[in-house]
Model the fold of this input.
Amino acid sequence: MTILVTGATGTVGRQLVEQLVQSGQRVRALTRNPAKAELPEGVEVVGGDLADPDSLKEAFEGVTAAHLINFAGDDYQPLKNGERIIEVAAAAGVRRITVLGGRADGPMEQALAASSLEWTLLQPVEFMSNTLMWWAESIKAEGVIREPFGGRLSALVHEADIAAVAATVLVEGGHHGETLTITGPEAIATRDKVRMLAEALGREITFVELTEEQAKAKWRADGMGEETIGFLIQALGNTPDIGKTVVSTVEDVTGRPARAFSQWAAEHAAAFTA
Done:
């Protein structure tokens, strides 16, 4: 079988491509810029853009299963043409699809539900890799993390585990019509996350807990817009139960336990070192 991975150079997509290759699958990777993909040897890299479904016809040809994302572009805007993407995939003979971040009310997901395709929606909670985006520069520059809500719990998940669930479903099937919530093995408070990262780096990291107003002022100074700031205050200050409740999806689907944050921190320690 040939498996198509869209978003192939993204955080999860790159992991998924590598895991499928390692398991001996034939992989085709979709990217807007094939020349810069830098994917493993043996991967068929093709150009295309999810925002332009007709550009995907060649990419879907001969594909048995496909991993889709429901956003496009550098600004991660939700796709508005999901129904057309599913039409193109079905016409090409694709039989099985996973959707990263799939939500039941999305146009792509509704089109899948109305189709004869086998489909599974993947709903990971907070990515462990977000730690790089939010904390790396501050840790490298001064060894300090300044954030609100130090006691906030998150069942954050390793990106490799998200990919492992997707890979298993794409190859083996068996989860048609399901929405799989994907978490790590434990719910971790922000201040404990700082401690675990410091242990992995072998040096002290100071955690300064900000008030909500201090956090807003900091984010404004960082150039964030008011809408984003409002979202962060709501998401971090009132994390929904799904984001802090550990579930066994990774082990149930793949047969092995989810990776802990301590493992992720050890794997990425170099990225936090100046």
Observations:
- The two ends are 44 Å apart (CA to CA).
- The longest helix spans residues 159-172.
- The chain has twelve helices and 13 strands.
- Residues 17 and 237 are 35 Å apart (CA to CA).
